[in-house]
Amino acid sequence: MLQNRQNNMNTIKILLTLISLTGLLLSCEKEFFPETTYEGPQMVVEGYIHEGPNALPPYVILTKSIEYSSSIGLDALNDLFVHDAQVTISDGTNTVALQELCVSDLQMLPPFLQDAITQSLGIPSVDSIDFDICVYTDLLGIIGFGVDVQAGKSYDLEIITDEFGTVTATTTIPQSVPIDSLNYDNHPGYPNFDSLVEVRAYFKDPVGANYYRSFSKRNSEAMYPSGTRGTSGSVSDDNIFEGQEFSFGIMRGQDPLGEFDFDTFGYFWRGDTVTVRSASLDYAHFRFWQTLEYNTGSQGPFGTYTRIESNINGGLGIWGGISYNDYTIIVPE
Q1: Cis ω on the peptide bond leading into residue 191 (within 30° of 0)?
Q2: What is the pTM of this model?
Q3: 81 secondary structure, DSSP code
Q4: Higher pLDDT, 62 or 34
Q5: E strands, the chain, where?
Q6: Which of 16, 197, 217, 311 suits a disulfide with 284, CB 3.0-4.6 Å?
């Protein structure tokens, strides 16, 4: 259970690796400084509220935007975090205040408490990072009390700081759409790649607008966002299959900075235990990931820029809710 919770927080890891990757790419190309209208920092919100098996308690990461040409080092990363904010979540009836928790705070606790909190929130262990990651979270949610998270409800986020004033957002958690079954097919290059398989999911899309995000993992590896065959990212709408029975290939979620092999990319191995997470999200959350992933995949000399959409009033970023279920298939050897 704790492993699943840790997997859910790969957003933090991906955020850090994307910063490193950006620096690497810029160092390999001719330096270019586009015209900018930067007028000072804005608050950047990355907050999530999940409903599903072993879901994390709600959490929010608050940072500041910086100018395009700014240098990024460990000191700069530490300075990006916004501290001492008043952060609350409301379901329209009850309001819960989130507490700020930094890795440095955990050093004062006994080791068994450090481990319990870091594993529950997915924060890296105290000794494994060089700077102080801070999150606002519902600490009572760690022990099973706190925000009552339910599919079908909306949740308001309010953030108050001296520097940025009041920042707000609202997200709705849709009902999750179940996967009917999982199966597998041979790799398209079979029999040359007879040890690899493609996992397929079968489901019935409800009538009406639905938005999905998929994740997957093999064995005890971490769970990452995963695309589906025929899509360019981890999210999709139901425009082409609304109200229909549908099947799609699940690509294996992988570390974006891990080893890349064209023949094995996205496939699973015979003997694998495959876990697929099917998540439902609202339109604003869908559009955030759709535009973010489009920009990530459109780099290069002929790439085009699309503004990343946000549902944050008074800032940038996302306050996103999802409902999800996990499904497992064991592929015979």
Answers
A1: yes
A2: 0.82
A3: B
A4: 62
A5: 43-51, 59-64, 86-90, 95-102, 134-137, 154-161, 165-172, 179-186, 196-204, 211-218, 224-225, 235-237, 245-250, 268-269, 273-281, 316-330
A6: 311
